[in-house]
Amino acid sequence: MPPIRRRPRAPQQTPAEQHAEWLRLLAPDGPFLSVDVLTEAFPQGLDRLTDELRGRVRRAWDEVQEAPGELRSQWTELILGEVLGWQRRYRAEPDRSDGGRHPDFALLGPGARGENEQRLHCYLLPWDSDLTVSRADRPSAVEQAAARCRRDLVPLALVTNGRLWALVHARPGGPTSVGVFDADLWLEERALLSAFATLLAGRRVQIPETHTDGSSPSGSTASLFARTANAQGKLTEELGEQVRRAVELLVSEIARLDREARGHLLADVAERQVYKGALTVLMRMVFLLYAEEQRLLPGDDLYVDHYSVTRLFDQLADDWERYGEEIVDRRAAAWPRLLALFNGIHAGVEHPDLRIPAYGGSLFDTGRFEWLTRLKVTDRVVFQILDALLMLRGKGRRTATRISYKALDVEDIGHIYEGLLEFSCLKVAEPYVGLIGKHEPELPLRELEEQRSVGEEEFLAWLLDQTGATRRQLEKGMGASPKPEQLADLRAAADSDDELAARTAPFWGLLRTDLRDDPTIFPAGSVLFTQVGDRRRTGTHYTPRAMAETVVEHTLAPLVYAPGPADGAERETWRVKPADELLKLKIVDPAMGSGAFLVSACRYLADRIVEAWLRDGVPEEVRGAVDGDDSLDELRLFAKRRVAASCVYGVDRDDMAVELAKLSLWLETLAKNKPFSFLDHALRCGDSLVGLVSEEQLRAFHTDPVEGRQVNSRWVGKREGEATSIADRIEQVLAETTRLRKEIEAAPVLDPVDVQRKTEMLREAEEQTELLRLAADAVIAAAIAADRYPDLDDKRWVDGDAESKKLGWRAAYNHLVSRLSDEVAEILDEATYNFKKETQLRERVEDWLTGKRDTPIRPLHWALEFPEVMGDGGFDAVVGNPPFIGGQRLTGTLGTDVREYLVADVAGGKRGSADLCSYFLLRNLRLAPHGRTGIIATNTIAQGDTREVGLDQVTERGWTIYRAVKSQPWPGSANVHVSLVWAGHAGEKEKYVLGEDEVEVRGITPSLDARSRVTGKPFRLVANEGQAFQGSIVLGEGFILQPEEAHALIERDPKNKEVLFPYLNGKDLNSRPDSSPSRWVIDFGDLSEEQAREYREPFDIVQHAVKPFREQNKRKVYRDYWWQFAEKRPALQGAVSGLKNFFVLATVSSTALPVFVEAQIVVSHTCVVFPSDDFSVFSLLSSSVHGVWAAATGSTLKGDLRYTPSDIYETFPLASLGAGKKSVGEDLNLVRVKVMFERQIGLTKLYGLINSSTNHDSDIVLLRKMHIEMDKVVASAYGWDDLDLGHGHYETPRGLKWTVHPQVQVEILDRLLELNHARHRQEQEAGLRPGARKRRKAKPKPPRPIDAVTPVDGALFPPDGALF
Fold this sequence. Notes:
Elements: H1 15-26, H2 35-41, H3 51-66, H4 68-83, E1 91-92, E2 105-110, E3 116-124, H5 141-152, E4 156-160, E5 164-169, E6 177-182, H6 183-186, H7 190-199, H8 202-205, H9 221-260, H10 271-293, H11 301-306, H12 309-323, H13 325-330, H14 334-347, E7 349-351, E8 354-356, H15 379-390, E9 391-392, E10 401-402, H16 410-418, E11 423-427, E12 432-434, E13 442-444, H17 445-454, H18 456-467, H19 471-478, H20 484-493, H21 498-504, E14 521-522, E15 527-531, H22 545-560, H23 579-582, E16 587-589, H24 596-616, H25 620-625, H26 632-646, E17 648-652, H27 655-669, E18 683-685, H28 695-700, H29 705-711, H30 713-716, H31 725-746, H32 752-768, H33 770-785, H34 802-828, H35 835-850, H36 862-865, H37 867-870, E19 877-880, H38 887-894, H39 896-906, H40 916-927, E20 932-938, H41 944-949, H42 951-956, E21 960-969, E22 977-984, E23 992-994, E24 999-1001, E25 1029-1030, E26 1040-1041, H43 1043-1052, E27 1060-1064, H44 1066-1071, E28 1079-1082, H45 1089-1092, H46 1096-1105, H47 1107-1110, H48 1116-1120, H49 1130-1136, E29 1141-1146, E30 1148-1149, E31 1155-1158, ...
Parallel strand pairs: 3-4, 16-17, 16-19, 17-18, 19-20, 21-23, 27-32
Antiparallel strand pairs: 1-2, 2-3, 4-5, 5-6, 7-8, 9-10, 11-15, 12-13, 12-14, 20-22, 21-22, 23-24, 25-33, 26-28, 27-28, 29-31, 29-33, 30-35, 34-35, 36-37
Helix pairs in contact: 1-2, 2-9, 3-4, 9-10, 9-15, 9-16, 10-27, 12-15, 16-27, 17-18, 20-21, 22-24, 24-26, 24-27, 31-32, 33-34, 33-35, 38-39, 50-52, 51-55, 52-54
């Protein structure tokens, strides 16, 4: 008998493949669950249902379809009770007291305190009910369920009609995720039923999202959604990196084809055009992938098999598997197919078997990059590009995951491409190579050879700097040699140039590979895709959707509701304005990037318009436009297209950012069989901060119209009101341009003819304003050139004080603009126009706008770009996330000339080291003089110079800060803390809201604090002088020793102990369990050089390690006295003399709490010293009273408090604790020291536990109680026994803290400021002035104990001369 042949077993699916499969079959809407999270949660795969249970489900399904009316309830109970395991005792009646759709029951689960909590809402609908279809008069069932989830803070819902089972996930401020399981497919696709039973099993749905101690997420279903949302940023980062590599591959292929054509292919194509063309191809592909998944393109076989990008990838993958990569690399059939599809999308296809409407738009315009049609890109390259767009293959992934574009937000796609804006292309005449490392640089091969010839260690050091790779990576790469097959790859990458291959071989291990795994070698004549800028360095960061939506909502809500927030109305009484009024609103983002804020504004305003239509009746023209389909989705889409066409505007200085913003809005407003929304008139390229804002500036040919009328009489006439030919020309052009642009906005886009008509009108408008743009450029060029104007006789203003600089800059500017005015006037006058003079003027203006930059600034003249808006009172709202550039980096990033222009024109002459966000904020006021603005800014906007330049001037100009979040961590990859600020002309009854927890306050100050009863700033108090000192500034790492080095020096010569001391810095103070110094320092004090030399070894160390460094310093005293500390703090030394211990706190920390330390140490400048051993001082400094004051008067660094003694301590009105009260501080110190020692943690980690709302350990609870007792003692010392401190865990600008109630914090600040002002007045009346003691250089005295002070004014004000 012949042996039985066993059929080969199909390879078993991995868990990741299993999850990817059922997700593909489910095709959920919104950001559902990710494969990564599912694989981590279910590493063994989905739960398995028994064959018996599956059989029962099969039989029950067959039966219920025959008699749904009679059997539906039994069928539903089978699924809920037996498949999912939802016990009836955990199903509770919901609250039905309000209107709207209610769940049939709520599924309960155990809560943190033992009581049951709602975990999921369940809706049981009639058999034939629609789950996802909305109507004009009501949202769909899943939308209503999502709204209830958000309202009740229950993140999950299950909505079913018996056949369809929709799992809904929705949280406040987040998107809705919906996965609809079809029971008819459960038996056919077993994975779908398993996934349904796994996700909705009672044991997963009913448990809390986090473990009982709150330390980590649980395995609950709600937690899986939360983890997916948290990982979304990582997913987009990975996809963004793959897209970058895809663009790099396409550029590399273009360069190869150009080299084969001996440079003829790209001879007339500029470098930037190559970059833009390649990036546009990728943008087109992503758009098509998104549109195909949304079923917005044809779904018939002809399109799918012969045009679809998604199917093209699958076909190429099959060819790769069948024929191998060599065959695929020889063919070039996919590229012309893509080009044909691009052309079909732009121009449309009319064929008996296929119809694609003409979508138009610049994205698919084949005329923009005609040279792309001359390429013969191989199928292998097309496949690798599509693979990068469709399959996630990040590091650490065992299995590639297919990407669902349906699950990506429009903002995610914008984020993916925004990272590419810092790249461009570069044509090179010599060979280059691409290296490994964080920076992945492209460098000339010659440069590598030169650096390698210097020496191995020097080469390694150079590579560390250039690549950002680790030393280990580079050492491994430098030691690697290519194998024979790798040498062949080298030769192929080098265009079969043996010499070039041989030159690159020594660097084999340092070369990175492209998507084809080929080494990145760029022969001479190549085009490189390389990083040419750093948007993060210039402060540009992608804004997450939730944050953009928050800013937009609170900016627009006061404008769209009446009554509404501007009237102080309660939320349930808000009434949206009529749709016609809403469609007149004008909203702009002056630094739009990929358009996240514009998309949010489009959504928000469209939803309000639909709300108005549903209340007032849908207009007939709207019904006609949606072909009678009055579903809510169709109405929303139509409203979004109307809003995009006439309500939202944006500007960015990067031309490809403008294209990205268009892409984002096109994706958001894409309608089947409708052209792209026309956006060219609304999204413009230019520098938002540099340019003319008003028509008056243009008419006066000056940034200051009043001064311009005096300087440029030819433009405005010698007498007020006198007309000139130039004035007439300006009026005529602006009127005609405004008319054309209003027509563009008003006309709907229903077919390609509408798009073409709008394009022609915009072209006409731009031609009308061409010469006026030149005139406006000249006005700005003169302002930019004023800083470096060389012909002034008196240049003293350049180095003078602020007022001198302001006057000097203005004089230089007036001189230049006056010189230009006559030339420009001749060009604008048709009678005197001369083309040669126009050309010469353009060259000069461009030169002035360029300055020392590589390319000229591109001013954005708001009065010319948007005359229909600026000529009608300006915008109604300005939103955005301006670039994060600190004041100290501003000049280096923008240039001195632009910085001076911003100070003079935007900031009104107000100088200061202000961050860029303050200038954007001031510009926003000019753009929307009667409107509202909402921005995200660095948290320094409320601090120091940035506040003085920005928010101080906002309030001085009559604006109101009506809402703010002072500080919160940035949720993205940028390592910053941000503020959210909303300003406008608030209504009389409008409520002021502060913080993430939305506390209602009296008002909001420019410091983004609650407005107190007391106005003004705190004064420095004489009584507090000389009691808080910054530690010593060493200035030279060579002073610092490791403990073993110091002990060895002392052992060799005990005399060295006189100049060697433990060295305490802020890090040691807050991180070590005993807060002790981890290093030592050489301190010669004020010894002369001759005296210092007596300590031979320490002196030799300093001479060798410090002197060369200090000799480079600009300050003479630091160079001359190089063996001494830069700042020795003699006053501090005198104050601590005789003390065995004193108190120290870290200058920058999250705690700002004092520590009791031994005196025989040197304290670093990263600490503040309080020269006292009295625990009354400790109690006061450790109290919430002092902490609240420090937070309000200090500044921050990356979210931590920066403790500046002059700003915080010297203004702090001290209190006497009274006899016997100091023990509370001693007790706290003893317990704290014990807990830190037992846990082996430092102060920062200890207070991290105290501030954690989930930690209930007995020692932590004890410390909280001791802080409460201490705060009561301190409050009583101030006479504030009436205050109910209300201790608890509250959100603060520095995160969650255990502290007093936020409202109590405001009251404490009010009382302290009142006290500060009262004491200051008394000191003035007594003839005391801050700093007098310092000027007299009196010898510091150690402070007396607080209890020893004889107080006045009810024990609140120490007498003259008292220090505490």
